[in-house]
């Protein structure tokens, strides 16, 4: 769906001469997980957006874009975009539990999307953009379900939360060109007009410990 907006947003950006303030895009630190790190996995629409959401938080070393939740053992971007693989655009989050809790990551996950949108986020439509919170043990499942109940009881949303809560099985890293996409392509019309505004909205609304 993003491709449909590139052309329209290119036209919009050509029609506008307004200058915007530069946004500091948080980068991950690449490398294998250390013995002190934990891993969490979330899908919430476009993984470009998800990367910078989690990487902006103190305690998160890296968020890697990829695919999870489906059955295809050899997913790639083109196949996932067809919706035939069952996979969703996903991020694998590497974090230090001494600095940030799984609970906080779950709160950030829900705060950075609309969890009531079924098989889409905004104008990105398809099962590959569905909302999924993966869990690795019973405690993580309970934390996710408790957050859903809290949000439901608060009546923050008019519609029902449709986030899937499923056990983690396997994560497939996406192609290299998707990693840190927003940092490398800040002038991309979709990034400039959709991804970055969504990220700034999240930073304004979420009461988190953000990197400076």
Number of strands: 8
Spatial strand arrangement across the major sheet: 7-6-1-3-2-8
- Globally, the shape reads globular
Overall structural domain count: 1
Q: Poorly predicted ranges (pLDDT <50, ≥5 residues)?
A: 4-21
Order of helices and strands: HEHEHEHEEEHEEHH
Helix/sheet category:
alpha+beta
**How much is the average pLDDT?**
91
Number of helices: 7
Instruction: Please state the second-level CATH architecture.
Output: 2-Layer Sandwich
Could you give me the name of the CATH homologous superfamily?
Peptide methionine sulphoxide reductase MsrA
Strand content: 15-25%
Structural summary, described in words:
With 212 residues, the chain is an alpha+beta fold. Helix content is 36%, strand content 18%. It has one domain (2-9, 34-205): Peptide Methionine Sulfoxide Reductase, Chain A, CATH 3.30.1060. It has a six-stranded mixed β-sheet. A two-stranded antiparallel sheet has the order 4-5. α5 (138-154) links the parallel β6 and β7 (164-167). α2 runs parallel beside α7 and α4 packs across α5 (138-154). The longest helix is centred in the last third of the chain and has 17 residues, at 138-154. The radius of gyration is 17 Å and the shape is globular. It starts with a helix and ends in a 7-residue tail after the last helix. The model is unreliable at 4-21 (pLDDT under 50).
